[in-house]
Amino acid sequence: MRTSLHNDSDIKEAKQLIRTSFKFIRNNLDASFIETKSNIIFKKFKNIVNISKFTSICVYIDFNHEVQTQKIIQYAMNNNIKVSVPFLVDAHNMKLKYISDYNKDINRNTRFGNGEPFEYCRDCSIDEVSMFIIPALAFDEKCNRLGFGNGYYDNILKINKNALRIGLAYDYQILPSIPKDDNDEILDIIISESKVITAIF
């Protein structure tokens, strides 16, 4: 195990404590904070990432006060980059579907409460993606992430090892370290309003 915690039970308990705290913080963010910070992060993303080097990217649809992604999606589309977004299949698995119109192709009335593509959208092979833009409840300074615990992104990233992996975060979401086990996939870059963290392998 790549952690100082003693066993799987300790790791699971430590993760859950962080999830509970960070869900509470995120649920209480105000609209002006979200919009202001998201705009800063979008501008940093444009400066850091040469979008023309990518042919097909996967971007999450933000919900529950996550860093907003609509501008990144539109920016990619304006540069003729194919954009796919997650479609949840069950409690632990998702697939990817291409969208061509952010306003028309996203279903906001879903069983899981998040925005996802309609069924009619064309499926995207996980191997086609050259960049993933990924959310989380918390990150750390070694580019680890802590999601909701369902393993959606870990399962996808285990299939596609070659794509660039970018996490979008507010500053408060970045901790010095978070609990990690061998099932957790590491990211390449984390972008927040004041930080850019690159993984060191």
From TrEMBL:
Organism: Brachyspira murdochii (strain ATCC 51284 / DSM 12563 / 56-150)
Enzyme class: ligase
Amino-acid positions noted as binding ATP in the UniProt annotation, renumbered to this chain: K15, Q16, L17, I18, R19, R145, L146, G147, F148, G149, N150, G151, Y152, Y153
Annotated TM spans: none
GO molecular function: 5-formyltetrahydrofolate cyclo-ligase activity; ATP binding; metal ion binding
Cofactor: Mg(2+)
PANTHER family, sorted: 5-FORMYLTETRAHYDROFOLATE CYCLO-LIGASE, ATPASE INHIBITOR/5-FORMYLTETRAHYDROFOLATE CYCLO-LIGASE
GO biological process: folic acid-containing compound biosynthetic process; tetrahydrofolate interconversion
Name by which UniProt lists this protein: 5-formyltetrahydrofolate cyclo-ligase
InterPro entries linked: FTHF_cligase, FTHF_cligase-like_sf, NagB/RpiA_transferase-like
SUPFAM superfamilies: NagB/RpiA/CoA transferase-like
Binding residues for substrate: I61, E66
Family in the record: Belongs to the 5-formyltetrahydrofolate cyclo-ligase family.
EC code(s) of this entry: 6.3.3.2
